[in-house]
Amino acid sequence: QLLTMQYPDFEQWEELTEENWDTTLEVNLTTPLLISYGLRNSIENGGVIINIASTDGLKGALASIPYSVS
């Protein structure tokens, strides 16, 4: 089963809001954490959870700061 999270809202630095920051981090960081935590007792021996990140995490962009840091 594959689960992907993505919430890029490409606002410029001057337009960044705390609401967008919070929403983006909730979708991209908190949700995968809670799903992984919820599945911790359901994974068989040797099973894994793979979280895949964007390359924006390697080189951020001013047009998507919350997305880049998450």
General description of the model:
- The chain is 39% helix and 0% strand.
- It is elongated and about 50 Å long.
- It is built from two helices and no strands.
- The model has no long low-confidence stretch (mean pLDDT 80).
- It has helices spanning 18-39, 65-69.
Give the class from helix and strand content and strand pairing.
Answer: mainly alpha
Large-scale geometry: elongated
Largest sheet descriptor: none
**What is the H/E string?**
HH
Question: Segments where pLDDT lies below 50 for 5+ residues?
Answer: none
In angstroms, what separates the terminal alpha carbons?
A: 22 Å
Short description:
The chain has 70 residues and is mainly α. The protein is built from 2 helices and no strands. The chain is 39% helix and 0% strand.
Topology diagram in text:
Layout: H1 18-39, H2 65-69
Descriptive key words:
70 residues; mainly alpha; 39% helix
